[in-house]
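Homework help board

Subject: predicted structure for assignment chain

Our instructor gave us this sequence and asked us to write out the predicted structure in token form, then describe one feature. I got the tokens but I'm not sure how to describe them. Can anyone check?
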Amino acid sequence: MMLLDGVRVIDWGLGQVGPYAAMLLGDLGAEVIKIEPRVTGDFMRGLDNFLSSSLWLADGRNTAFEAFNRNKKSVAVDLAKPAGREIVRDLVEKSDVFVSNYRLEAAERLGLDYASLREVNPKLIYAHASCFGPQGPDAGKRGDDPTAQGRIGMMFSCSEPSDRPHFVAPGAGDAVTSMMLASAVQGALYAREKHGIGQAVTVSQVSTLMALLRFQVMMAFLHGYKNAQMKMPPDDPVTAHSGWFRCKDGKWVFVSAAWTGERGWREICQRIGQPQLIEDTRFETIQLRLANSAALKPIIEAALATRTAAEWETAFAGFEGNFSRIRNDLSEMADDPQMLANNYVVEDDHPVLGRIKTLGVVPHFSETPGELRMSPPELGQHTEEVLLEVLGYDWQRIGELKELEAII
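My token output:
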């Protein structure tokens, strides 16, 4: 038994936001049917590179598509043809959720907007994601992750004062918006179960990123801060004994006594081999340490530069404060014991790529756990299966649809 057993989701999305949200629902047990353009499929199937690195895998597979489309069936349909649109409407009649991140203008033109589809299925949960939201002067404008990050000030939340804006982890805005949409869908399904109602659920990238930066935004609203730069720059006094430090091997660690007070400060001094700092009158209190940061910071930096990050990880084992290596090689997570123990990283028998490591299902449920059941599909791989088993079409009708080039 899985959390969303018996729930059928239609994924009419492209790129990351809609497809990722649908995938998260699939991870929790929903049957997800992905509607793709008949000839080209989701454009992520053909994305050539990312940050100048090739995305191509064996047999024409693509990392961009693989990342956001597991646990789905692919149905390839030409929505420019009435017969193609009829297929989607027939699927909506037999489904619970419709997920999309196409612009509302496109949805209305094809009759796939909420007003049209609720006539087909009054209890439908229509989940839509956009960049700017469904109302207001920018409602119909195109937008993407960097557009949203710039609009809400996120690009300056990770840059130094007076510096140029920086793109925060490309795709971060897409990812959190997908998570917000998937979470909202589950709430809407609960409301339908309790009250028998379908409804439209909308999220946007700008609203989600504003929620992500909630503390900074509220500081601006309530305290009048006008500068979006709310990060701690490396030379900020507060990082004198709570921050990131370079080690002997050039790697970095994060050390903090922020939540353990004076006890944590004394423990840091002992573990870095500087016990004399405990009795130094310049550093007796947090206030004094901040005031004398210019003298304290170089001492701590020099101490942490004497060992490798791995050696400090051993030295800080059992530390009551916060300690972590700062990873600059994401591939290391594939073998991280903590990630493996919690199934944050799992193995999958991919039909083309063989045995691979991939991200696990989040969140975890003790009684209805999610599961990686299906690798990302080939374009149109399940078209005939879905038309036969879900819609009850016969082979004659399927043949006619192929002649019309409405499906493949």
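Reply (TA_rk): Your tokens look well-formed. For the description, you could write something like this. The chain is about 40% helix and 15% strand. That's the kind of observation they're looking for.
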